[in-house]
């Protein structure tokens, strides 16, 4: 199925659900009060006109910030990698066949996605080739303008229900805006005015259709940008129309598609800038907290949606789309400026430092569709048991122009936007250090004096940030320094002496007269913390400061296709990965030791280049396995029983790990701990047998419960089939309960004709359980079988399926007769 068709269907199928309003946020960070600019102050950069609410922070013009250090390395890799050389590999960027250059030809999101990131890559690196090609494509796009304001592929006038599809224009508008900010091109404002007038002439129902409905915040952002330069009141009427008719994030979650959510959840806060009502910002917080509370319960800042978030599929093996990573970062950046709340910058940093680098191979020659917190093999093989929402292969690294399509074109904005959002102008004529990395910024402050601030730091691998001010004369302005939510005791010194600072919106604010060569040393002391994810089986993750750590799994890289210039890679493990951590119960953080390495590589997001690692202890957990398609099994309850010997483990920054275990079980030798089971079946077609352990504690609402994962033997019918639990050590069991799946009236699964329970004896043979009464096949309840206590390393349900029908199980529980001594 063509990707656009599949995604549109998945969006509409997701439906809308009410917000809970009470879900726990994904990160345990406080939300400080917003920045309060000093009275009588004024900005030096374009700010909101009335009636728009003033935003505490403003984007600086592209080119104001020069990234250095590891961030510059990432940008250089991007220049020579997929985004920087995309015209070599993507036929969507052919100027002779793209509708963005030749309106009679087709075109959709691919070129707009690419150009948005590619242009900003040129602005932050000043690469002449990139800047020239950006100009060329801007010229081509502007040359397609029509008298009514329409531009681009003519087919987009009628491609969505016989009306215009305004979604693919959203990234084009971003590209045009930043080009204007960089170059001053006087064609851009008229072009944007014409396009938004064209939209304003459309019926309001247009904004309730297609991808544009779920992502309308992007167009609202452009409307504000234009209004602040022209003052045209009709633009605000357009914003009101778009908000009224588009997907409603104020009372519901209208879609569970991951990119829609990553872009769309901020729309209420954006509309609140016009409405002046704080309830809209509260709605954005509620959507975020609801999504992350249900699906974001693992490290990295993303959420479980390897296309759409699915009820019951919240394990850290579920991936987050690369498009979702960069769009979520962008949303957090916008919200940082709107609110002045450092919480959003913290969340952007989490994604950038712990997830984004692992979305690419180390040379950025390829990307993959999804990145997961727990992932032990990245192959180019489709998974057919329902492990993921998509049936196509999503994990290998490749250019993926036609396999992944959106992500290779869209990922390019990730690092350039991050670089451009490191420093912000404040509404009171100052500067804000919002995201930390080695860099310099040149900006107007105070009375209009242009200053340069140079930042030297190894952050996030070190806790010290040194800022040096260069100014032609003494100048008064406030300098805002973000204090990350994990940092408890920040300090700042000037010339070696402590410097008083006020707190505002999560920032340290230094409001003083600055002189040439003033040097500020900011310390953000980092400590090791261990987070327990209660809703993901009490698994744990380890952090030091902002960096999350992953088990170092030795990676075997194999080129599986492509060319020497554009290789395609699969990555397989060559060392064990199934470990449970041994923790100090009184103080878990004492279980880990941070070590500095001798690595001086410019790229810290590789095994050999990381400047830090951790030492830990753990035990093998042999019941934790991969399935028959090499997908890591979902987590089971911690602590996990294991008597394997304690081993010394090495953990590395998660962003340096392409194979990654970042949500760990905890280990216990106690007989009261859970014995993990490996699950296999005689046949698994479209539903993974591991669903049974994912749902070990669920209470299905009926035998046709569609809100939880299930296992079926489909499409086998009328056959004898089995499903099995295997344990690393012997378990004592005296009862089992089975909840059968039955989709009468909907499909071809029924309760079985009959079944029996078997156990593996010490002679290696399967035997039927003695003393068991009749085996129940009732629908809509658990069918329990009790029997004299037996000791075994494996249990098996063998079912005789009804003639002409298949069957399945929603939950299968074993009841031990009591804990071990």
UniProtKB/TrEMBL annotation:
Work out whether the entry's keyword set contains Signal. yes
Q: Does the keyword ATP-binding apply?
A: no
What InterPro entries does the annotation carry? 6-hairpin_glycosidase_sf, Beta-AFase-like_GH127_cat, Beta-AFase-like_GH127_middle, TAT_signal
Write the record's keywords in alphabetical order, separated by commas. Signal
| Non-reducing end beta-L-arabinofuranosidase-like GH127 catalytic domain residues | 111-418
Task: Give residue ranges for domain Non-reducing end beta-L-arabinofuranosidase-like GH127 middle.
Answer: 431-526
Q: What is the residue range of the signal peptide feature?
A: 1-28
Query: Mind telling me what this protein is named?
Result: Beta-L-arabinofuranosidase domain-containing protein
What high-level taxonomic lineage is stated for the organism?
Answer: Bacteria, Bacillati, Actinomycetota, Actinomycetes, Kitasatosporales
